[in-house]
Amino acid sequence: MGENSQIEWTDHTFNPWMGCTNVSPGCDHCYAEALARRFGHAQWGNHPRNRTSESTWRKPIAWNAKAKAFKQEHGRRQHVFCASMADVFDNQVDPNWRLDLFVLIRECRKLDWLILTKRPQNIRNMLPADWGTGYRNVWTGHDGGGPAAF
Predict the structure, then answer these.
(1) What does the buried/exposed string (b/e) look like for 123-133 if buried means 16 or more CB atoms within 10 Å of the residue's CB?
(2) pTM here?
(3) In the chain, where are the structural domains located?
(4) How far apart are CA 102 and CA 98, in angstroms?
(5) Edge-to-edge strand order for the sheet containing 111-117?
(6) Helix %, strand %, coil % for the chain, to 5?
(7) Dihedral angle, C-alpha 139, 19, 32, 135, nearest 10 °
(8) Which of 7, 61, 86, 138 is the most buried (most CB within 10 A)?
(9) What is the pLDDT of residues 77-112, one digit of tens each?
């Protein structure tokens, strides 16, 4: 189990914003939507997304600063599940928020970021200009019924 997450395959979860809209059959049993409704974290559907606090945005910087000690203790890099309560490639997200996220990911190069999406068709158009063949510290995945568009 993760240090700052109850998801066994990650060490931390980081939510740059909250909220999403169901877009595919893969969304039918969305745990994030159920949690959001249960705890009132965010509204799901056609509602504004809620950017998380500056203190939340500083957490990856702290994890990155402790990367050497983590690797010595665990024998591997820290894994960060990004946007467990949202979708990075959601059309309704402010594009500047996404740019801020990629700046943070570049700053935190000692962390391995996992970004999952239900919107693979949006990936190519929403990546930062310096993406090239990808960032070495980012793992991407999708459940959109076809190959990713990047």
Answers:
(1) beebbeeeeee
(2) 0.84
(3) 12-142
(4) 6
(5) 12-14, 78-82, 111-117, 138-142
(6) 35, 15, 50
(7) 0
(8) 86
(9) 999 999 988 999 999 999 999 999 999 999 999 999
**pLDDT 10s digits, 125-145:** 999 999 999 999 999 887 655
Cα radius of gyration rounded to whole Å, the chain: 15
- CB-based burial label for 63 (10 Å; 0-12, 13-18, 19+): buried
CA distances from 18 to 57, 61, 92, 94, 130 (A): 13, 20, 11, 12, 25
Q: How many residues does the chain have?
A: 150
Q: Return the amino acid letter for 124.
A: R
User: What are the residues facing 119 on neighbouring strands?
Assistant: none
Residue found under tokens 């309560």: 85
Evaluated on CA atoms 105, 87, 24, 124, the torsion sign reads negative
Reading the block at residue 72, the tokens are 């010595």
